[in-house]
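G., the chain you wanted modeled:
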Amino acid sequence: MPRLNQFQNSPVAQRFFLYAMSVNTYLKFQGIYLAGSLSFNNVIMALSASGTTSKSITISLGLYSLNGSTLSLANSASFSNAYNANTFEWITLATSAAQDLTAGNWYLGIIQSTSSNSLMSLGYLQANIQGTANSLQTDGLYLAILLTSVLVTSVATADLRYPSDLSNNETTRQPYILISA
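Predicted structure as tokens:
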């Protein structure tokens, strides 16, 4: 198996846009496939803040493996900051520890919260990913949500919700994520 220098959960040039975040209690899961080994060290995302009103954001990302029908937390990364001016930046989430990932299937879980949601945006891949428990979504993305406000250490796949309503933007969008060695 080859060694990868970076991985992105979707080609950014195809469908990248900024989407205002809401304060939510959704832990969003996305299945990914690594074609080679990769160091889980730097997790990078796009962030935009607008206006001079004080606002803050916290982002937590979990890296999960699938054992039977249970997703188990293997590693995590986080970011927290406050803003009071217009900004667009690529942010790096701090990982709990560098980890060498083997080729194969992994799952990303992300949750974010903001103090002023209408003024904060993450870079998102695309809108309206739809599917069921037994199918893959658009572009091979596996998307599911869990109603919680924290990263969980494990969750049964039967407890996940699979968005099927194309008009429900909050549950059918996935942030753009870049992992580099």
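The longest strand covers residues 87-101.

Shout if anything looks off.
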